[in-house]
Amino acid sequence: MISVGVIGCGYWGPNLIRNFVENEAARLAWVCDTDERRLAEIGRRYPSARATPDYRQVLADPALDAVAIVTPVATHHQFARDALAANKHVLIEKPLTTKACEAQELISLAADRRLTLMVDHTFVYTGAVRKIKEIVESGEIGDLLYFDSVRVNLGLFQRDINVVWDLAPHDLSIMDYLIEREPVGVSAIGSCHVEPGIENIAYVMLHFADDFIAHFHFNWLSPVKIRRTLIAGTKKMIVYDDIEPTEKVRVYDKGVDTRGARDRGDREDDYRTLISYRTGDVWAPQIDPTEALHYVCQNFLAAIRGDARPVTDGAAGLRVVRLLEAAQESIKEGGRLIAL
Amino acid sequence: MISVGVIGCGYWGPNLIRNFVENEAARLAWVCDTDERRLAEIGRRYPSARATPDYRQVLADPALDAVAIVTPVATHHQFARDALAANKHVLIEKPLTTKACEAQELISLAADRRLTLMVDHTFVYTGAVRKIKEIVESGEIGDLLYFDSVRVNLGLFQRDINVVWDLAPHDLSIMDYLIEREPVGVSAIGSCHVEPGIENIAYVMLHFADDFIAHFHFNWLSPVKIRRTLIAGTKKMIVYDDIEPTEKVRVYDKGVDTRGARDRGDREDDYRTLISYRTGDVWAPQIDPTEALHYVCQNFLAAIRGDARPVTDGAAGLRVVRLLEAAQESIKEGGRLIAL
Amino acid sequence: MISVGVIGCGYWGPNLIRNFVENEAARLAWVCDTDERRLAEIGRRYPSARATPDYRQVLADPALDAVAIVTPVATHHQFARDALAANKHVLIEKPLTTKACEAQELISLAADRRLTLMVDHTFVYTGAVRKIKEIVESGEIGDLLYFDSVRVNLGLFQRDINVVWDLAPHDLSIMDYLIEREPVGVSAIGSCHVEPGIENIAYVMLHFADDFIAHFHFNWLSPVKIRRTLIAGTKKMIVYDDIEPTEKVRVYDKGVDTRGARDRGDREDDYRTLISYRTGDVWAPQIDPTEALHYVCQNFLAAIRGDARPVTDGAAGLRVVRLLEAAQESIKEGGRLIAL
Amino acid sequence: MISVGVIGCGYWGPNLIRNFVENEAARLAWVCDTDERRLAEIGRRYPSARATPDYRQVLADPALDAVAIVTPVATHHQFARDALAANKHVLIEKPLTTKACEAQELISLAADRRLTLMVDHTFVYTGAVRKIKEIVESGEIGDLLYFDSVRVNLGLFQRDINVVWDLAPHDLSIMDYLIEREPVGVSAIGSCHVEPGIENIAYVMLHFADDFIAHFHFNWLSPVKIRRTLIAGTKKMIVYDDIEPTEKVRVYDKGVDTRGARDRGDREDDYRTLISYRTGDVWAPQIDPTEALHYVCQNFLAAIRGDARPVTDGAAGLRVVRLLEAAQESIKEGGRLIAL
Predict the structure, then answer these.
(1) Which chains are adjacent to chain A, needing at least 3 Cβ pairs under 8 Å?
(2) Residues A92 and A223 in one domain
């Protein structure tokens, strides 16, 4: 059994705690939070775990194998560095760090000590995203043309981080996982309508070496909740709507084919006949409804044992942080294209 | 009765013809199309109108008061210039022209001759958009924060013009009408997945002097049809969903207020209590279902008689063409911000 | 070419006229309506057809092959009897007649004279219903368990006929076509909220010899428009939603299986494990978007030529009229089961 | 503080336990379940409560004020009678009992001993239903015309009780609360497709002295989940859609008015002009999102203190049981109308 400590018991921490407790391969050894009241609450719920407000006390336990760091992002780098230095495997809440150089340092440190470093890109582990991955990899949708994602709602405004750092890790990690292509540039625009200096709406565009494009709309100030991603391929197209209770993924047998020859007649109709539209069946595959965090914990534990590689390893975390940094820089510079 | 000729009987022309025929203030005198077969078809349907493949013959009729030009955009400038020179009032299908300088010339020409020049920005005349205008002007939604529009579907690919020139006139004219603010810059990104050189997907961003922003997604290659605009104000927010059969406009009594003071506690919760979310009723006003073109024709005829001003006059057409030109230029330059 | 006359140019007649005109196998010879103004209007639109307010004049034309009767239902029997007596093939708007005995008489008359008698059960010819038929016949959904149909909206109130006679022919004919089973009884309840004696809401239940059941909700006084049919089989289930613009038919790989054995434990959980739920993919087949009336006319013309049998023949019309009569009788008797 | 014991810790019991624990006016004194494993589980979660598999031990505690009975319906009568006999206030999970005479006995017993007897008709306490009540009582929708409810999904099959006893208490109690009218008869039809003798689909119709009608569709074997109620009034109409995440209640300013006079012309159009359709705004009021059980517990505790009357008292429970009994009887007799 792998002995795990969870540092940070705020909004997301208790979900990780619960999933480690329910996992037979793990033993929850420590819970840690600087908020004494919250710590006491969690302590009562899990009396077999030791509780402390000081994360160093957790790391000092020689019997502890691994820690999950679920604290504000500004603290990730220090906590993770100290944990790796103390020879603990580390799972970090997204985003991995606030700077790419920090992420790079953690990756090196983990590699040197042969420790598992993993980032909790939760959505990658959902049944919906895993099913889309399967479809994309099967070649069924053909070559990818674009990725368009909208994640908007009347959001919980965050302190210190803007809507990009809050919401973009979800969609950027999903794209990173599904597309497996490296963008060559980022441009982004944002606006602060509520808190000066904290963007509550942002549009992020990723540029690639060819005509593939990816675009994202993040918004904390939308009257309606939309979480929809369009993924177009040359053969088929996918709509991933996370609001749908059951049919979250739909595969459309739709598309456009063109012919080489082309009549130069005067009427639109002449031309249109040379574009051939395909409109076929729609298919909504069954989605594994298991909580994504279950697979996050399972993957982390398997990686520690050497039975698997982390699906969202330090390198994945670094790629997302690089995009976040570049998007932030572009917003500051009024939308200038930032080369990667 | 105002005597009207319609030049161009392709996809949209017959709709204008029908609306002029049904309007008691107008008399359809001429129909014109270079496609003889189409012309004959329309001629049979409206035997009282004269038919000709040559628009010059239409303009040469001294008894004719006005023409509607419903031809490919590349011909708008020449046809309209000739019509104004022949002392005819002119209604032009959107977009007004392919270049701002051409639009400017038409405006001057019409002004000099005291003729009505009007552009058919049809959506401005819909019950939905007029209702939104009414709500915005009432002050009910407060100061405007952003305008976000998505117009995507598996579209009819056009020859010679891209998705921006095809779809953006709709949303840009709606925004121009509703917002009444002048953007200071445009940036846009597009990609050509089907026809080289003809963008089938594009994202357009309008920059303003303050933190108001407007963003548009145009797409001919989407598996699903979405036509949704979010308009956020400091007091309320509007969703305009043109796909909805009846409740096209919804007003959400939702928003966020902030307090000046702010506790610098360690926990997110401390901060969140200082942001106050408003979530109230939703209201879907009844929308006038009358065909928008009815009002377009009515407005055009009233303007000719001097009884009204065109809601979408040459200047409105020019403003939209300027945005289209700038968006096109930005796409060519990889998204560079084009100052207006 | 088959020469056709259309008797009745009200709401539905012009649609049939247009479809006969567009069909190369037919020639529109006569149009007929007692409303002179309407007749003149139609006459102008189709100048090659002869126009008369007197249906007897139509029937007297020895060159005429067939008539379509699109008049109020009370006139169907007389007009059709006279037409058959004049040796014309007959297509009648649904419902076939107001009484089963009348329908029976028409069937006999047509059989005696070897004429085609067909009823315009339009929905049977839609792409959606034909696709469902294909799925049901393939055995894919297993044995049928129930048929549940809701057709409600804020309807156009009819004079003289109630909501059952107005709306039920649609769903009863769809069911008759898809299910191919004879009900053994009908019970129905209705209420008159607007016009005394004219039910605007009704629930109709068909009883069968086994545990299959069919239920219908018809309503002219609903705030929302719903046209949804659930068809459950032992293997799969179908939802037919006619409001959906494209995905009108969905096939759900869902169901319940039971095991013979059963633990008599105290807890619900013990039992539930013995019911096995299947929840698999959802599939929305592509639907032929061709206007159903096109196929109605095509089928009628082919039947006249002897190339096909009418899909909705006099017998189909009679079966629906029998159900309507029984439903009406049951409503009058407060819901008493009427044996068939 | 009122001392409460909860008898039955299956599916619903823990929800009541949690709500009593969170209510400051209550103290959870006992938990009881015959399933030792489940009891131990609950015991660990609430160590301050005493745990026993024998409900008699709970009732024997002289310090206990009240019990909540959340056991299979067949046990309700005995457990509640014993509890009242032991001088405990009683809250019973819906439906109150399996027979009306049992419910009557409990009501008398509670009245004699001046004890609170309340049934957990949870939906009555939801924000949505309370808001509808407010609207109905305000007179805004006019006189009620009909109540139509559909509650279908791929359900958890119950042992021993059919879909009517499982689902109908929800909708019947909602109707009873909203409509405040006594039905004069019940007819119902059901079918058993999975378990012999246990209906998985049923249609229930309530008959009233006038032309108001109420109809219900209950179904455990539906491919889709629908929970929608239409409530029509002479002035407005309400749609209550419990699946909607936020806009559960919509008020439609729609309806039909008739005129006394009526032209006896030949055409439908002549008549239609005399029916006047109103189609106005749609309004979705904000709904209190508080968990309904919170108000159930609050109302029960207030009733015990004498500060309030139970909204869903024994009489309400009895009215629902009477309808369930009659519906069951009608199903057995093939849909015969059962007078109340």
Answers:
(1) B, C, D
(2) no
